[in-house]
Every structure is written in structure tokens, then in C-alpha cells.
Amino acid sequence: MKFRTLEELLSLCEQSGRSISDIMIENQAAESGNTPDTEFMRMAEYYAVMKEAVQKGLTQDTTSRSGLTGLDAQRVQKFNEQGEACLGDIAGTAMAYALAVSEVNASMGRIIATPTAGSCGIIPGVFVSAQSRFGWDDEHLVRGLFCAGAIGYVIANNSFVSGAEGGCQAEVGSAIGMAAGAMVELRGGTPKQAIHAVGLALKNTLGLICDPVGGLVEVPCIVRNGFGAVTALAAADMALAGVRSVIPSDEVIQVMYEVGVSMPEKHRETAQGGLAQTPTGKRIIDELRRKDQ
Amino acid sequence: MRFKDVFAIIGPAMVGPSSSHTAGAARLGRAARQLLGCQPEQVVITFYGSFAETYKGHCTDLAIVGGILDYDTDDSRLVTSMEDAEKMGIQITFKVGFGNYGHPNTANIVLKHGDKELTMKGASIGGGNIEVSKVDGYDVRFTGNYSTLVITHIDRPGMLAEITGLLQREGVNIGHLSLDRKGRSGEALTVIEIDNPITSKLIQELQEMQQVKEVRTVELMKRG
């Protein structure tokens, strides 16, 4: 790849007058040795899986093996349809879709890790809901995935994208940053605005710990995907409106790394702290252990 | 760079619930299976760190066994891998490991078939990506994102030049190479990640080299 930082990515865009997704597709083809079309087709298949997962989560039983979670997406979607959502229809739908994909994941269904399974609902939630609202074709959204991927590539290589290494900020936080930046490009914003959206979004999840109850990707992971979709839309709107990330986005990524490294192990996916060790969290762990034996 | 391309970030397509604990674990299992070269009869899996804490909840056990049965990350049979293995008469033991393990999501896999045995240690480093750090006691480093040659050979001068010379003649480009040995003038293990698919001709030519004892391969990426 010809870029390591968001600043380098931005200067590639500005020198050539092209979008982040264009730069990513070209670099990806160079890295794999395949044609840009081949790489595009592969991403298109992934987008199809994302759309299937949204549909599945909205229509099928998503009760997880543990029985702890499931069907929340359908509850939220029904509430949206009644015109009751405080968020309004747009953000409410993104939230429902994100919950849907995340519940499919928890019930051992097929999803695309973006960047991880724990955070797999955010990008589909934002993308699939925006597609129907704005009437975009699939190709536009597939380009958006390359844009999101470019941002994620920088975050992953300068910080991390796994909860075990950097806490939930690394998973859900990264996905929100990726979705926000991609949404800016999809809406016709500049690469610079897209990069600002990443910094704005990441700042809002710094320090978020990974504390899954019973070690399962369920509580609080699923609802954090729902919240994440809404936050991504908010960050995209701020950036499109001209709000800047005063601390440059690359520096925010460095902060995420610093915060993640100093996070105690109990708050990095081990289920030894946070929500996992509340009285209810512990009771759930006990019950699951008994069920296993 | 730990993450090489856009599909290390968007992807893999996988069965939930966790890219580190399910998809990464399946890929670790599959790498070990391919190194053994056949279906094992006995499997001993030791989990460390976060793997050890949460392997049941994340279905890491199902995923790693699925991988050992050669199932890919998005194979819906991962859900039934434990029953599948039982039907095939494969004996599986899980252990929890202690001590220095490096990465928080680490597993050690021992596979046996007859008198063939393979020990592999690796970590799931996030987003379904893996890093293998030990094979049969040798220090190695490969990711499964490329076609990988694992060559056991005699430790003597010029060996590496002969191997890379052969690869050059075959037009094979090397992405990463690591070599380790247990002592001087014994056996060494060379692991080479290459950009090209591995052909049977390449394996045969490597095997015919006089001081090459064994050639194994790992190929985890779908080739379209």
C-alpha cells in the first residue's frame, strides 16, 4: 500500500483529484496482483452477504445459543415503523439494521467481519439503510466499502482492531470511524471531510472497554453496534457540515493505541471486569457454566 | 505492516460470533491440519490468555475443531464440528495453558495420525487474521494470507540459496521468509510465504532436492 497514515491517504487523493475508494481499489489491485475488477467483485460479494444478514436479522429468529439475546432488531424496527423513534426514521433504521446483523452474528449466522465480528453490524447498518434512503445502486456502496477499508487499514496498522488488544474502542470504535468516513464520501463530501469524520468519530469511543458478559459477543456488544451506527451518522453529518477534528485523525488513532496499551487486561475481552463482573454478569456466567457441564 | 490489504479489514466472510475467537481459531486449526497433511486421529488443543477465558462462549472450541476438519471460516458446518469429529472417531482434548504465551489469543495445537505428529502454536491477532509462531518447536512466522511452504531440511551451507534458486527458476516471488534450527548442523525449518499458488510440480522439485527432508504447505485463502 502506498499509504500508512490518513494524512498520506489524503495527500494521494489530493494530488490525483481522486476519491479514497479509488486510491484503495488501485492499491488493493497492486497488492494482490489481480485486476481492479476482480477485487471489486470480491467486495461486491461481501456487500451481498451484509444485505442478507440485515434481512435475516429483521425476519428470522436470532435468539443466541446462550438465550441471552435476540430479536431486539425486530423490536426496534417495529417501533420505528410506528413513527415513535426519538431518533427519527433515518437513524432509527440504521440502528435497527446494525442490531440485526449483530444478532445474526451472535446466533452463529453468516456475516462479514468489518473489521471484526464483534463490530460487524455498524457498517451494514449505516450502508444498507442509506442505500434505500438515497436510492444508491450496489456499486456505489461497494465503493464505499473500499473507502471504509482504507480507513480501517490505517487504524489497524497504527493501532489495533481487536478487543483483546485494545478494548471495544478498537472494534466498535474503529467500525464507527470507518463507517463515518465512508458515509462522507458516499454523500459526496471531500476526502478531507471524510478524514475529519474519522477523527471526530474515534474521539467519541476512546477508552471504551471490552467487557463481554460470559465472554460472549452479545452483552453489551450488540447494543453497542446499534449505538455505533447512530454515532457514525452523527460524525458524518458533523464533517459534511464543516466541523473539523481539531486533533488530527492520525493523532487520535495514536491516542487509541496509547489508551488500549494501558488498559488493564481485565478490560480487554477477558470477561474479568466491567459489565462481565457485575452481580448479574457473574450470575449469568455461573448459569452458562452449569449449562455446559 | 500487520494488516496487508483491504480484505484483512473488510472480511473474512464468516460464521459468528467472533472474528478473533471463531474465524481466527478456525484458520489456526486449518493451518495445523494442512501441516499434518491428513485427518488427525488425536487432537490436543491448549488455549492461553483470552482464548482460555472465553473459548466456550465464543465457540472457539467448535471453530478450531472445524478448522482441523478443514472447514473454512464461512462454512456453516463449523456449528456441528464437534459432533462431526466425534462421528469420525477423532479424539479431542482441550487444555488451559499457563505461562508466557505472547499474544492474548494464543493456541497450541498437537495433531497425531499414526506415527505422524505436528505441534503448532499461533495467535489470532484480530479480524480473523492469524500469526503462526511455532511449528514442531521451530520459531516461524507466517500468516496464512499467502501460499506458504514449510520445508524441513539439513542445516548446511548453501541450502537456502538452493531453495530460493529453485523458486527463482519457477518464477515464484517470495513475500516473507524465516529460518530456524535447533542446533548447528542438524535440521532446520524454512518457512516461505509466496505470491503464487503452490503447484504440485514445485512441491515435487523441492522434495527431490537431496537435503530436503519434508515439504509441507499451508493454503488458507480462497483462490478465485
Automatic annotation (TrEMBL), chain A:
Top-tier EC class: lyase
GO terms assigned for molecular function: 4 iron, 4 sulfur cluster binding; L-serine ammonia-lyase activity; metal ion binding
SUPFAM superfamilies, per the entry: 2-methylcitrate dehydratase PrpD (SSF103378)
Cofactor: [4Fe-4S] cluster
Pathway membership: Carbohydrate biosynthesis; gluconeogenesis
Keyword flag Membrane: no
Keyword 4Fe-4S: yes
Stretches assigned to the Serine dehydratase-like alpha subunit domain: 17-276
InterPro entries given in the database record: Fe-S_L-Ser, MmgE/PrpD_sf, Ser_deHydtase-like_asu, Ser_deHydtase_asu
Example GO biological process: gluconeogenesis
Keywords tagged on the record: 4Fe-4S, Gluconeogenesis, Iron, Iron-sulfur, Lyase, Metal-binding
Listed EC numbers: 4.3.1.17
Reactions this protein catalyses: L-serine = pyruvate + NH4(+)
Pfam families (alphabetical): SDH_alpha
Similarity-based family: Belongs to the iron-sulfur dependent L-serine dehydratase family.
Name the UniProt record assigns to this protein: L-serine dehydratase
The species this protein was found in: Paenibacillus albiflavus
This protein's encoding gene: sdaAA
UniProtKB/TrEMBL annotation, chain B:
UniProt cofactor(s): [4Fe-4S] cluster
Swiss-Prot/TrEMBL GO biological process terms: gluconeogenesis
Pathway annotation: Carbohydrate biosynthesis; gluconeogenesis
Origin species: Paenibacillus albiflavus
Reactions performed catalytically: L-serine = pyruvate + NH4(+)
Protein name: L-serine deaminase
Keyword Metal-binding among record annotations: yes
Domain ACT residues, every copy: 148-223
Bilayer-crossing regions: none
Family in the record: Belongs to the iron-sulfur dependent L-serine dehydratase family.
InterPro entries: ACT-like_dom_sf, ACT_dom, ASB_dom_sf, Fe-S_L-Ser, Fe-S_L-Ser_bsu, Ser_deHydtase_bsu
Keywords: 4Fe-4S, Gluconeogenesis, Iron, Iron-sulfur, Lyase, Metal-binding
